[in-house]
Every structure is written in structure tokens, then in C-alpha cells.
Design brief:
- The N and C termini lie far apart (44 Å).
- The protein has a single domain (5-19, 28-113), classed as Beta Barrel (Thrombin, subunit H).
- The protein is mainly beta.
- It has one helix at 48-55; strands at 11-22, 28-44, 61-67, 77-80, 86-89, 106-113.
- A 6-stranded antiparallel beta barrel has the order 1-2-3-6-5-4.
């Protein structure tokens, strides 16, 4: 199978799903659990605009590149396996896909560094 050069940047990532489960006392608790794994290239946006925004307190901004068919939606949360860093998607991969004529089939989304909230 031929591999595209950009695929050398891919790393394993795991979606983290939020679910609600009974607490055993008639209530419920919300917890974060590992979901599906996928491959993605994650690059930090170091444009002047992003750096100015970071100085003003905005979280770090990243571009997440995946193969088409990996649908990442607004506020999906995932962890990069290599270092355990967590990211939250701030756009949708369906909105930024390579054109049908392209030989490579990729999609991108914006993301921010994130921390899982304590529920």
C-alpha cells in the first residue's frame, strides 16, 4: 500500500466520550471513557494571530489532520497517545476536506488544548 508523506506525521489518538451512568443511589454521575482510536497529525498554529491571541489568554490553537472518513465534530475530545495531551475540536472535519479530484483524501479541523473537567 502506498503511503503519503503527510501520513508519516500521523500519531495514534483516542476519542474520549462523556457518558452518564447510574451512581447506585438513584442518581447519576458523568464520566469520561476511552472510545475509538484513530490516526491524526496535530500541528500547532504559530501564526502571528494565534500568538497574539495566546498572549491575551486564548488557549493554544492546533490543526488536526485526518484521513477522510474520520469525522471529528465540534467539541469532540481526544487524547494523543504519545504524550497524553488532550484536545477539544473547535470546528468540524466535514467542513474542510480535500477536493474530490485530489489524490490524497484528508480532512482538517481546528482544536484547542484542553483539560477534562472534574464533574
Amino acid at each position: 500500500m502506498n503511503q503519503y508523506l503527510y501520513e508519516d506525521l500521523f500519531e495514534e489518538c483516542t476519542l474520549i466520550d462523556r457518558r452518564t451512568v447510574p451512581d447506585g443511589m438513584g442518581g447519576f454521575v458523568k464520566e469520561w471513557v476511552d472510545g475509538a482510536t484513530f490516526q491524526a497529525a496535530i500541528t500547532k498554529d504559530d501564526s502571528l494571530e494565534a500568538r497574539v491571541a495566546e498572549k491575551q489568554g486564548v488557549t493554544e490553537v492546533y490543526t488536526v489532520t485526518v484521513n477522510q472518513g474520520i469525522d471529528l465534530d465540534f467539541h469532540d475530545v481526544f487524547r494523543r497517545s504519545s504524550d497524553g495531551l488532550i484536545y477539544r475540536i473547535t470546528s468540524n472535519t466535514k467542513d474542510m476536506q480535500s477536493p474530490p479530484r485530489a489524490t490524497f483524501k484528508i480532512a482538517t479541523a481546528r482544536a484547542e488544548r484542553w483539560e477534562l473537567p472534574d464533574d
